[in-house]
Amino acid sequence: MNIKLLMVGLMLMTNFYIIFHDIKNREISNNIIISITIVGLFSIYIKGDISYLISPLIILSIGFILFRFNIIAGGDIKLFTATSLMIDQKYLLLVTCIILCIGGLQAYCQYSMYKLTNNKNWIDRGIPYGVAISIGSLFGILASM
């Protein structure tokens, strides 16, 4: 079996789990992040290009600053860092834009639901940004294969 196909299948299953779990609990498991990181490091090993480590380190550094200012959750930063191990650097800006657009759409939908229902729970729980990160990252991973 083709190893790239196996990795894509594994990432699809993992990301669907993340999407479901993040919507339900607003939490991304560290065990899932570790498994994605292992697949990402294996992907770098297969490609034989250590430069794929630069982008995740930059994402982690910027994400840490955003986390310290309470702009984004730590699990979301860890997820984007782990998935970026498998994304070619030339697609990273596009993937980031996709993530931001999907996240903005999520925020708009949740705010609209709040306005329609007057139920404050729609905005109190925050945005499950793992959904946007998972979908955007999958595009980047597939483009990088």
From TrEMBL:
InterPro entries referenced in this protein's UniProt entry, alphabetically: Preflagellin_Peptidase, Prepilin_IV_endopep_pep
Keyword annotations of the record: Cell membrane, Membrane, Transmembrane, Transmembrane helix
Localization per Swiss-Prot or TrEMBL: Cell membrane
Keyword ATP-binding attached: no
Lineage: Bacteria, Pseudomonadati, Pseudomonadota, Gammaproteobacteria, Vibrionales
Membrane topology: Multi-pass membrane protein
Molecular function as annotated in GO: aspartic-type endopeptidase activity
UniProt organism field: Aliivibrio logei (Vibrio logei)
Transmembrane domains' residue ranges: 6-23, 28-46, 52-71, 91-114, 126-144
GO cellular component: plasma membrane
Gene3D superfamilies: 1.20.120.1220
Domain Prepilin type IV endopeptidase peptidase: 13-105
Name of protein: Type IV leader peptidase
Keyword set includes Repeat: no
Main localization, broad class: membrane
